[in-house]
Amino acid sequence: MTVTIKTLNDLVRPPTAADSPMATQEYFVNMGPQHPIAHGSLRLVLRLDGETVRQVIPVPGFVHRGLEKMAEHLNPRQIIHLTDRMDYLSALMNNWAFSKTVEKAAGIATSARIETIRTLMAELQRLQSHVLWWGVLGMDLGALTAFLYGFRDREIIGRLFEETIGARLTMNYIQPGGVMYDIRADFAAKVKELIKYLTRVIGEYDILLSGNAILQERLRRIGILSAERALSLGCTGPVLRGSGVPYDLRKVEPYGVYDKVEFDVVIGTQGDCWDRYCVRIEEMRQSIRIVEQLIDAVPEGPHMVMKFGAKIKIPEGMHYGHLETARGVLGVLLVSDGKSDAPQRVHFRSPNFNNLWAITAIAPGWRIADIIAIQSSLDLVIPDIDR
Amino acid sequence: MDGQALVQAVIGLGLGARNREKVDRPALEVSPENLPALAKRLRQDPALAFDMLLDHTAIDWLAEGVFELVYNLYSTVHGHHLMVTTRVPRGSPVVPTVSDIWEIAQWQEREVFDLFGVQYDGHPDLRRLFLEDDWPGFPLRKDYTDEDMLRLPK
Hints:
The complex is a heterodimer of chains A (about 375) and B (about 150). Chain A has 16 helices and 8 strands. Helices cover about 45% and strands about 10% of the residues of chain A. Chain A has 2 domains: about 10-60, no CATH class; about 65-385, Cytochrome-c3 Hydrogenase, chain B (Orthogonal Bundle), CATH 1.10.645.10. In chain A, helix 5 (about 110-140) packs antiparallel against helix 15 (about 370-380) and helix 7 runs antiparallel to helix 12 (about 275-295). Chain A has helices at about 10, 65-70, 75-85, 90-105, 110-140, 145-165, 185-210, 215-220, 225-230, 240, 250, 275-295, 350-355, 360, 370-380, 380-385, and strands at about 25-30, 45-50, 50-60, 175, 180, 315-325, 330-335, 345-350. In chain A, strand 4 (about 175) and strand 5 (about 180) form a beta hairpin. With about 375 residues, chain A is an alpha+beta fold. With about 150 residues, chain B is of the alpha/beta class. Chain B has a domain at about 5-95: Beta Polymerase, domain 2. Chain B has 3 helices and 7 strands. Chain B has helices spanning about 5-10, 35-45, 105-115; strands at about 20, 25-30, 50-60, 65-75, 80-90, 95, 120. The interface between A and B is large, with 48 and 44 residues.
């Protein structure tokens, strides 16, 4: 049994005659690693026939920091810091995914207050992440005004995080056994003010961008991903739901207090860029609904059930936990030998790694300009691909 | 099907699957030779219908001299989870690909090849994923060393 190992050079061959009626040649163009729409360092090698894309070869790895190798030398409390640095727009949800896995493995029971605060914070961050995505999508497609609106509103949510947590991006807030700091006395009032404001501006987003004829031309019936293909490609989150599969861990396997709140899972009908756009816009409204139901119902109690810095003992075996971040399913595989503090192996099943490859299935046949729309509708965060 | 019934049903298929202990979810172990047949059955059997390969990775058991490959499956039809594992010797880590059954396996397997050096027989495009094509060694192996690696304080 011999297995052939290829290199990128084997794929990028000299120009060949293109499959078109005119005497044209196929050629390769590098998009990235420094390209504004990558929102990070991602290289796409495009095989082109004129302006039509025949093949996309993603080349990730520019932000590979070896988080999984690092985690093999750290204890669970220290690993939380690494999780912030994967999908930095879902930092709290990443913290939560790892904490949840550790808590389940070590048998740490949290309180209703902790779970409610976690759910609230996660939904606020989902809002923040989607608001930013909306602004950036506008910018990618040439509507710079949307970008300014998106960043303005993201900042307002960011300020709320900063008041409670003390950090804005790599928050390291949700810990095994609770949350780092309790919410402040004026938190509820400020959140209520925020959701009143956001409800209004999401309506404005629709007026500003969603109804725009140019935007719709750029998104509708572009980059269609069928439900069957999306499942086979391991897509999750808004990408999968845009293709019409109602798979949302908040509903399917409720964690936190998602089983106590009412919200709808938003799905698309045909899986084009426009569906993925609409799913995220509507998810913002659903997140507001969840926050509205919880903000007056935070139970009393401690915000941490463990002593500060207490050692966490993880029993021998494989432990798996997952939850729904703003971009899809984040899974954590934790393997412990039951003796040392540091785990034997930590693996993060990151949503962006699995969503990225959808572009190889969607993009062929479309123009270069459509690649921009397709990649923007996938909402990729590059450090989460590379880890 | 609940977890235990699911595990029993898959063991009952007669494809050499047996229970994998010490996992906090339904888990099975199978030999590398039986992996493609079992994977195909899990995907196509209407009662099982595992349409998603959520996750694939490896664990390096240096002391035992094996890589344990982990496949995390989910069925959106039935809403059940299953973890399938297989063991390959560290000396000659070759395992059949499942990328013809779940498309995403193509890239998940490339990640495992890149970081562990596990070779997938029948893979259409096996090459490095994150690291450069001429990178020496496989970083997630326990015995990997690099002169740039930092020493842990004693």
